[in-house]
Design goal:
Two copies of one chain form a homodimer. By secondary structure, the first copy, chain A, is α/β, with parallel strands linked by helices. The first copy, chain A, folds into five domains: 167 residues, 3-Layer(aba) Sandwich (Rossmann fold); 108 residues, Rossmann fold (3-Layer(aba) Sandwich), CATH 3.40.50.261; 167 residues, Succinyl-CoA synthetase domains (Rossmann fold, 3-Layer(aba) Sandwich), CATH 3.40.50; 77 residues, ATP-grasp fold, A domain (Dna Ligase, domain 1, 2-Layer Sandwich), CATH 3.30.1490; 113 residues, D-amino Acid Aminotransferase, Chain A, domain 1. The first copy, chain A, is built from 23 helices and 29 strands. In chain A, strands 9-8-11-10-12-13-14 form a seven-stranded mixed sheet, sandwiched between helices. In chain A, strands 24, 25, 26, 27, 28 and 29 form a six-stranded antiparallel sheet that branches. In chain A, strand 3 and strand 4 form a beta hairpin. The longest helix of chain A is centred in the middle third of the chain and has 20 residues. The first copy, chain A, starts with 21 loop residues before the first helix and ends in a 7-residue tail after the last strand. The N terminus of chain A is likely disordered. At the A-B interface, helix 5, helix 10, helix 11, helix 17 and helix 21 of A face helix 5, helix 10, helix 11, helix 17 and helix 21 of B. Chains A, B: Keywords: ATP-binding, Ligase, Nucleotide-binding.
Chain lengths: 716, 716
Amino acid sequence: MSKSPAPSAPVTPARPSAGSLEPLFNPRSIALVGATERSVWSIAAVDNLRRFGYAGRVHMINPKGGTIFGSEAAPTCSAVGEPIDAALLMVPESKMLEVFDDLHNAGIGGAVILSGGFAETGDGGRQRQQQIADKARVAGIRMLGPNCLGYANFVAGTPIWTTPLRRAGGTPQVALVSQSGALASQLEQFAHQQRVGLTHMISTGNEADVQVADAIEYLAAQPEPRAIALFLESVRDPVRFEHAIDAANAAGKPVVVLKVGSSEASAKAAQAHTGSLVGNDRVFDALCRKLGLSRVHSLEELVVTSDLFARLGAIHGGGVAFIAMSGGMCEIITDQAEAEAIELPTLSADTGRALREVLPPLATPNNPLDVTGAAMVEPELIARSLRTLAQDPKIAALSFVFDTPPKEDARGFARRFIGQVGAGFRESGKPCVMFSHTFSGVTGEARALTEELGVIYSGGGVRHGLNALGQLLRHGAWQRSARTARNVVPEAALRPDSERAVLDFLADRGVPVIPAQVVTSAEAAAACAQKLATPVVLKIASPDIRHKTEVGGVALGLGDAEAVRAAYEQMMQRVQAARPDARLDGVIVSPMRGSGVELFVGTMRDPQWGPAIAVGLGGVFVEVLKDTSLRLLPVCEDDALTMLSELRGSALLDGFRGAPAVDRAALAKIIVAIGDAALALGPDLVSLEINPLLAFDGGIEALDGLTVWEDAREQH
Amino acid sequence: MSKSPAPSAPVTPARPSAGSLEPLFNPRSIALVGATERSVWSIAAVDNLRRFGYAGRVHMINPKGGTIFGSEAAPTCSAVGEPIDAALLMVPESKMLEVFDDLHNAGIGGAVILSGGFAETGDGGRQRQQQIADKARVAGIRMLGPNCLGYANFVAGTPIWTTPLRRAGGTPQVALVSQSGALASQLEQFAHQQRVGLTHMISTGNEADVQVADAIEYLAAQPEPRAIALFLESVRDPVRFEHAIDAANAAGKPVVVLKVGSSEASAKAAQAHTGSLVGNDRVFDALCRKLGLSRVHSLEELVVTSDLFARLGAIHGGGVAFIAMSGGMCEIITDQAEAEAIELPTLSADTGRALREVLPPLATPNNPLDVTGAAMVEPELIARSLRTLAQDPKIAALSFVFDTPPKEDARGFARRFIGQVGAGFRESGKPCVMFSHTFSGVTGEARALTEELGVIYSGGGVRHGLNALGQLLRHGAWQRSARTARNVVPEAALRPDSERAVLDFLADRGVPVIPAQVVTSAEAAAACAQKLATPVVLKIASPDIRHKTEVGGVALGLGDAEAVRAAYEQMMQRVQAARPDARLDGVIVSPMRGSGVELFVGTMRDPQWGPAIAVGLGGVFVEVLKDTSLRLLPVCEDDALTMLSELRGSALLDGFRGAPAVDRAALAKIIVAIGDAALALGPDLVSLEINPLLAFDGGIEALDGLTVWEDAREQH
């Protein structure tokens, strides 16, 4: 505090690197602009700095001067006469431009703006926010907010936070970024109750400058955070966001996200057909799969999961072995593991034999393993069981269910028991975690004891614990999966917009399409049919007609030359009568395909996240059940295979009712080719749909293709 | 304790009503048989009785005599010379028969058996358990266990529990029944942490006599429990179980259940076709719907939900209004409410206007309502908002999100704030509840303060709180739904087992079936077809042939007499060649139906829960997607309508691709009739399947019917 300048923090000039976030998030001196003893915000900010033992200088700034919180207030930052890194702005919105001039003059590098009255109030506020953002950029000031509660850098002991804040409990390993300041407070409280140590907590408010992406990228570069918890309402800059998540993953700091609401912008995408099939929230899910974001659905899951990411890391391969001390708990774990798609490997015969030797007579070697209440009398049982289970090659991680006593007991039982758990954990050589039975707060003593004895303990209980384990396993799988999808460069000149042009384009790109020939006379149609030597289909060829059936522009199953000729003439007459305005290029002649499995493959363009691809079974599956799997593009063949396996009707591909099985590998190649084709068509493409893509005994073929373009959403 | 007999508990003769559970669960005196100071079980049992201040006499029984826990031990119960209501048996399994003779002689009414070594160990143990059960029945002794931890009657201050136990915190309102003693302990611990007051806690162990059904029926008759929490592994006697749940509901005590594992017995049902479509766990779900059981999926949900049932009761009709103090929390509530199918009514214009008058300028009248941090300064905002929202007729219940401070603060803020919440709750005149933001333990002070100020507060957090609210709303809907399904008496003489016999039987029972005539000559077939004046279908009529298509026993779409004649002759030849053994009754002639919506209606018989009915859309929907809705029989038309709405492909009934919409009311009547028909066929019927039931423009018709019988599962 400025009352007692810390001798260990010598006054040096403010950092020169304008644009860096270091002065903002790790300032060596702070100005509280608009500080007053009558404001709860000022009181909280000053109390927090004091309680955290902030080592730098803190300057009170108030145009009225006087003594504030025991310090002589300066009228402006420039008047302080010392270098200042960061300022907390608690002044009315109307003074903000003036204040920024002062910050500029004082050479301040970072500003935290508590004040509201900006973009959150409407257009006028948005303009005023833009004005200060412009000023800040010119002045090289990085800005958090406006309309935010601030941040706390727990590892540096630096809070610029405007509601009462505790010091973090537990070893700080989790960084927290939230677009809601109030929820950041709630998360901090919950983290403290669970003794989950926070390294940083950043609330980004209106994000006039620093967005969640910047905060995440800053945290990715810090040594302390081992995982990042993110509360997200909307992403302002998708490109920066993706880049930041990539940076965090590259730094080995997985990001766990609680995302609420549906994006306003994405609603636009729903206009395209494929878009209306999927919905915005599923696009975010697809983004999570792409970026390796672990998505959770409650505040509790956000904290419990990021804590376990920080302490265990992603888990690679295989299943999990569980140990509990009652049969009932083992049954709960079995049900819950299934719900979380956690594999509970059946123990090998060797493991079973080895377990029988270490277990009491009544216990049966199973997974989950019920070691019975006997372990309370003989805690060595736990260590032995863990060690034995860990030798099973199918076991990638181990978990034991037990509630840490809130404090060490006089007779040392807790220490002895947890000590055995720790011994088992260490000797297993695999990731191990102990969960409480149900949600329960973790005391500082319990956290210290478990850490001392080498036990990773979560008070999240079995339900949240298994949910988190599922995320750790999925993230491990994501890390392993080769990101082999190649990026395709858009080729702006391409713009196929008739059925035939779309199919020809797809054929050029490696997608098998149904043979077809455009003919302009009944005779040519009949000749073409004879050459094909199979019943044929006639379809009207016109760039102006989208729904061919409605104008009588489709004739199916024509068996002989006579029928083809007649169908040609009738079709021309019908279509001309129905659509005298339409340009008719002739008639498309194609072989008539027999039955098979119809698939739907369609791409869409999310306004935020860009092109995505949906795959589904055709007909009622996609139209009634909306049974599709979605990924952002590009996708690789592994992605496409996973997509197929995700379909509810997936079994139809395996040869339903005696039909031949669909060649999934070939299908996956085609899906990748369609996705790449859509990318090649560039950013004006709204949607490329192949419906149906037919898998029949002769192979797989696109029977129809459709493109929708940005400036003409109804074209073929 | 026997050391200091309570003068308020005069010694009277043991209750005469043999068979009553009163001596077991509310004894006026207790014998601890096998008590010894060297056993942790004895120590815990004695400590618990002391800590609870048990008012009756406690007798130590040990054949060695001597002073145990300060009391003179008697060698047997008979030797005590005083009436004893209940005994806790902590003796080896080998002594048990002898001990029961002693209990009989001593006129003891209830026995709690801690000892294991019975049915849980295999066949030998099962026999020994039966022996003591027989003895107990003869002696009129009601028995809890064996292999159980006991019970605690918190309202009477009577624990017969063999691990350390606390007195309950919070007003006792929730009774707990668990088949696992260890999980009962965990649930008690968690309930205490949340200050959820327990009235009773009963662990039923091996259930040689008292089953969960008996415990629930006993609790239903007690005045204190207002809801019952049940941890269930398997139900031994389905009839008693249903009866007990009915009794609890009739007494206004909803039952919340956490059910694990899948029933061994139900696996049998999977052999029948419909059974393989559904699975055992779904049968239990159907049972929950029938009985009004609220099924939860974690220990936390079990406690939080039964607590809210006890304090709020079921909620009837309409949606819920939520108030929170941040926009972020409102967004979380919106997402979560959707996940729990809780309606968040849009506020009426009147409510909006009224709210605008009471809210600060920046707050917007919405549901959820963000009252902003301003409420911290002006808590009256909460009361006013609650009052105003409650006037909206669409709002059935209200909820406010706020964490109770762990203790009253010096300046009385907590009291003032919670007081305003309580005022708003009272004035609303509707069910109201306050949830913490995230899971958090509830202190005794917090519980007392909220109770004093009229605030129902749950520390379960928003996720579990909304989950529980969803259950309260669904239970309210269940209570309202008229249980109009009538019971059908089986008619043993009926046993239709050919397709024609099944369809004729269904027709008699009000199910429209396709017209059909069995003919025995090609001429008769042609004549019949001409009379129908529509293309016809021929099907071989034989009780010995199940899969008609495979033997060439089906011919479709025969347009003229010649074709019918030819088809008849060919079919007879083909079938005779393929199945020379089969009895052929002739050929069935039916009109050929055009396209329509194919449905599947099938009944199954669960070995535990009896007949059930599954409804689905036909073809791939039921065969690949297993998209069925399941109910236990009988069902009423409302049930059938709900079943149709539950189907994923439900939209197909509304006229997909221009097809006419299916008359859902008519369809529901037919489903009820099919269910009733299955009931009429009695307990030997394994399955009655109508596949397809065709809804076409001419109406709804059963096209094919199949029965499977207990002693001949492969018959037609």
